[in-house]
Amino acid sequence: MSLPLKVDKPTWAMNKVVITGFMGSGKSTVARALAKQLEWVMLDLDEMIEQEAGRSVPEIIEMDGEPRFRQLETRMLAKLLESSTSDVVVALGGGVWISEVNRKLISDHGALSVWLDAPFALCWKRITESGGGRPLARSEAAARSLFTERLARYELADVHLQVTKEKSADEIAAEIVQAIANR
Ligand code: S3P
Predict the structure, then answer these.
(1) Are the beta carbons of 172 and 21 closer than 8 angstroms?
(2) How far apart are CA 171 and CA 180, in angstroms?
(3) Do 20 and 27 form a contact (C-beta atoms < 8 A)?
(4) 21 CB under 6 A from ligand 1?
(5) CB 146 within 8 A of CB 51
(6) What spacing in Å lies between the alpha carbon of 100 and ligand 1's midpoint?
(7) Closest by alpha carbon to 34, among 78, 77, 90?
(8) Is 70 in the pocket of ligand 1 (CB under 6 A)?
């Protein structure tokens, strides 16, 4: 008689994963799918900034400027990493990982960074389909130049995940689980 296989929840030392990648790479959707698979909590940094500020991220960038937004972002990232003791998957905004201060905060808190490496064409398609709300990607040329400029920094993430339009968020999340288990 064969017994049903028992699937144990992974027992990793690390209990925080941050998902990075360009706008439109699918960070929030994949973070949600990953949190579900791991039975962890999912947090979205942009949403937390919006809740605290009482304004949307595009409004903050447009009214207060990008440097002020970056300050709020770093402050919220530090707060989140310091306060979350539970198992948590964090969807970062696309610019968070670009700052060395933020990268240090993430590694100092023992969080594993995962880069969703999606081709520019896919990101741009999703950016346009989402109907605005991204002041730093107003034109294809502006978005492409930001994408190119940021690549070397995204490559510094612990785990590099290739994203294609054919892969579902669940499939990508399962690949992340596998990549973490293989480390
Ligand atoms: C930004 C990405 C946005 C948001 C803000 C700035 C960026 O988040 O944080 O508009 O600098 O790449 P998403 O990556 O979720 O679109």
Answers:
(1) no
(2) 14
(3) yes
(4) no
(5) no
(6) 17
(7) 90
(8) no
Nearest CA to ligand 1 atom 2: 94
Residue with tokens 């294809």: 140
| 3-state secondary structure string across the chain | CCCCCCCCCCCCCCCEEEEECCCCCCHHHHHHHHHHHHCCEEEEHHHHHHHHHCCCHHHHHHHHCHHHHHHHHHHHHHHHHHHCCCCEEEECCCCHHHCHHHHHHHHHCCCEEEEEECCHHHHHHHHHHCCCCCHHHCCHHHHHHHHHHHHHHHCCCCEEEECCCCCCHHHHHHHHHHHHHCC
User: Cβ(94) to ligand 1 under 6 A?
Assistant: yes
Tokens of 113: 């960074």
d(CA 90, CA 102): 13
Q: Along the 183 residues of the chain, how does pLDDT read in single tens digits?
A: 444 444 455 666 678 999 999 999 999 999 999 999 999 999 999 999 999 999 999 999 999 999 999 999 999 999 999 987 679 999 999 999 999 999 999 999 999 999 999 999 999 999 999 987 899 999 999 999 999 999 999 999 999 999 999 999 999 999 999 998 888
Whole-angstrom CA distances from 37 to 25, 75, 89, 95 are 19, 29, 11, 26
